[in-house]
Amino acid sequence: MARVTIEDCLKRVPNRFALVHMTAQRVRQLRDGAPPLLESKNKEVVQALREIAGGQVYPVSREEAEEGRARAEAEERARLAQASLAATMAQEVAVDQADEPTTNQEQAADTPDDDQTV
Q1: Each residue of 39-51: pLDDT tens digit?
Q2: Superfamily for domain range 6-98
Q3: What are the C-alpha distances in Å from 97 to residues 44, 45, 60?
């Protein structure tokens, strides 16, 4: 496999400072278990640089990152609220079904006893 060069990465990243930060962040992600975006048997640093040079990882501004995080958190809250609502509704249905008399109980309640006169 060909070597990855700084010049290859700088085509995608505005400067060396940003490249160092992006690479370090991607290495942390890889070490924390993030799946590699390109198949390679390299160490994490080289893997991160290959992904940056390949256009798989790209820089975002702090504002964009915060917006993305806020959007992801809002989506997660909405998903949890929906799951909670579904669980509550399922419990209410189960309680309602438990409170309903069975068919045999309904028939017994509708038919008069033999001892009673009508």
Answers
A1: 888 899 999 999 9
A2: RNA polymerase subunit, RPB6/omega (3.90.940.10)
A3: 56, 59, 53
